[in-house]
Input
Amino acid sequence: MATELENKIAQFETDLGLAHDIVHGDDETTVETDGGYVKSLAKLVKDAEDEFVGPATTVAQDARDDAIAARDAAIGAAAAAADVAGDVAADRAATEAARDTATGAAATATGAAGDAEDARAGAVTAREGAETARDVAIAAAGEAAVAVAGTEIDLVEGGWFTRTFAAGAISPTVTGWPAAGTVASFMFEMRKAGLATITWPASWKWAGGVVPAFSSNATDIIAVVSRDGGATVYAGLVFYGLDPE
Output
């Protein structure tokens, strides 16, 4: 009976160590378990964040929140297990209950990992859909991209604008908006925008309330839309880091 209890204690300590690695491992950690390799919660969050772009941001955030909740649950379970472990020799039933709790927390973390993977797939689908929509829009309009040399983007000239930035300050302006009540939009393809100090018009409202950081050695594409003649303009980063040097 003592040997069986000792074996169960040893197994419990091993399982607790694995749960600790999954909960506290850094964003490069993958833990080998009897059921296969399991990523740490930090790695799950990092992998999900690395893959999420544009319209998929909300889905990615939900998956990240699920992973954080699973981590907190696992931390709580590990703390409970540590309290019971001190009296494991005298109270075998309490030890087994703590082990079951830790197992349940690990299952919760595995479920969060599945949610993160689903969110990643959704991000890829959203990105591919946006690319298709862009190609269809350009083909339907039958217009070429308009290179912007100065600071003015004139919507009379087209709906897809390009510019290569350099170090220095610049304040882009947009003209040619239709009258209020008519929705108008355009895409701005920006090369090396991260090198410049860009002051955007005060009427622009960015997704998430924050102007995104742009690439210094690659291409980023933003989508811009207004339905009140440019009085209020909504903008968001659609693609980041394309064709890096």
